[in-house]
């Protein structure tokens, strides 16, 4: 891809990133499956999969080069001489190859090429790695100069799988926060496993977050740590649930646990899920009451 600078529209930050910030993330691009997996370094210095992005790598004759490079310059807007198209949040990592949004007819956010955008997930680019706008901006904002990028090829999409396409229906990228009212995007997913224990005996231990997980439905990022919950106990007298500080298994009865998780991607609301838990009396306690 041949890039041109557009006067007054491009920003090329000169980053002086520390060694630790350069190592915070490692981007791995599977050009066969068109998936970018972001790995983050944990406290032990090992890389763990954090999130995945759907992408479009180079088509036949313009294949994205396999190998490992480092992030270099960044352009807020870039353009291609070959296709006369414009892209947002270009992050270079191998010569003139880099990450960027899907294409626009003009350097204006309402001129998205809809058909082009909806080909994400297929190898259709001229060598660069195209992404949803939100994902291109994430790399632009969070991965400094020197961050490692590896392009490889495999039938396995990666440890987090291949995320879905967020389809465009108008001139704006559907993941653009500034225009999110144009689209109705799915919020995060809260999952309560079937293995979750919902029937206990008085005195048993109950862990509200056991077997409860959450994730971003677009990047598959684990959001479990962002899940919050509130506990309610059913009042037979008032025939309604009343908020309590915790689920006390020493008090038999019916409880409801409400889980919430904020949308990490586009701020389109909060995911919700509920669980009903029944605490039964011990047999010994029932016998005592009958005496």
SSE blueprint:
Layout: E1 3-4, H1 19-22, E2 25-30, E3 35-41, E4 47-56, E5 67-70, E6 74-80, E7 85-94, E8 97-101, H2 114-117, E9 129-131, H3 133-142, E10 148-152, E11 189-192, E12 199-201, E13 212-215, E14 228-235, E15 240-244, E16 253-262, E17 270-280, H4 283-290
Parallel strand pairs: 2-10, 8-9, 12-17
Antiparallel strand pairs: 1-6, 2-3, 3-4, 4-9, 5-10, 6-7, 7-8, 11-13, 14-15, 14-16, 16-17
Mind explaining what this structure looks like?
The structure is a single chain. It is built from 4 helices and 17 strands. It has 291 residues and is mostly beta strands. The protein has 2 domains: 3-182, L,D-transpeptidase catalytic domain-like (Beta Barrel); 189-290, Sandwich (Immunoglobulin-like). The strands form 3 sheets. It has a 10-stranded mixed sheet with strand order 1-6-7-8-9-4-3-2-10-5. The chain has a 5-stranded mixed sheet with strand order 12-17-16-14-15, with no helix packed on it. A two-stranded antiparallel ribbon has the order 11-13. Helix 2 (114-117) links the parallel strand 8 (97-101) and strand 9. The chain is elongated. The chain starts with a strand and ends with a helix. The model is unreliable at 1-14 (pLDDT under 50).
């Amino acid at each position: 891809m041949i890039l041109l600078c557009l006067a007054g529209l491009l920003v090329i930050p000169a980053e002086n990133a520390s060694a630790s910030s350069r190592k915070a993330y490692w981007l791995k691009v599977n050009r066969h499956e068109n998936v970018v997996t972001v790995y983050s370094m944990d406290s032990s210095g090992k890389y763990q999969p954090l999130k995945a992005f759907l992408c479009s790598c180079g088509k036949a004759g313009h294949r994205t080069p396999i190998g490992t490079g480092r992030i270099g310059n960044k352009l807020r807007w870039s353009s291609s001489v070959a296709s006369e198209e414009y892209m947002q949040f270009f992050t270079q990592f191998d010569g003139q190859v880099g990450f960027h949004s899907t294409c626009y007819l003009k350097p204006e956010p309402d001129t998205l090429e809809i058909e082009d955008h909806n080909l994400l997930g297929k190898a259709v680019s001229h060598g660069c790695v195209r992404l949803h706008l939100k994902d291109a901006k994430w790399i632009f904002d969070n991965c400094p100069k020197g961050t490692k990028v590896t392009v490889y090829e495999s039938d396995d999409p990666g440890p987090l799988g291949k995320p879905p396409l967020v389809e465009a229906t108008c001139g704006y990228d559907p993941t653009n926060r500034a225009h999110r009212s144009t689209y109705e995007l799915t919020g995060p997913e809260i999952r309560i496993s079937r293995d979750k224990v919902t029937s206990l005996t008085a005195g048993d231990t109950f862990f509200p977050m056991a077997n409860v997980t959450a994730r971003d439905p677009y990047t598959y990022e684990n959001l479990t740590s962002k899940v919050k919950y509130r506990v309610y106990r059913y009042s037979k007298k008032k025939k309604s649930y009343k908020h309590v500080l915790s689920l006390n298994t020493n008090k038999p009865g019916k409880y409801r646990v409400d889980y919430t998780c904020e949308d990490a991607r586009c701020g389109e609301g909060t995911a919700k899920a509920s669980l009903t838990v029944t605490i039964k009396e011990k047999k010994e306690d029932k016998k005592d009451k009958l005496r």
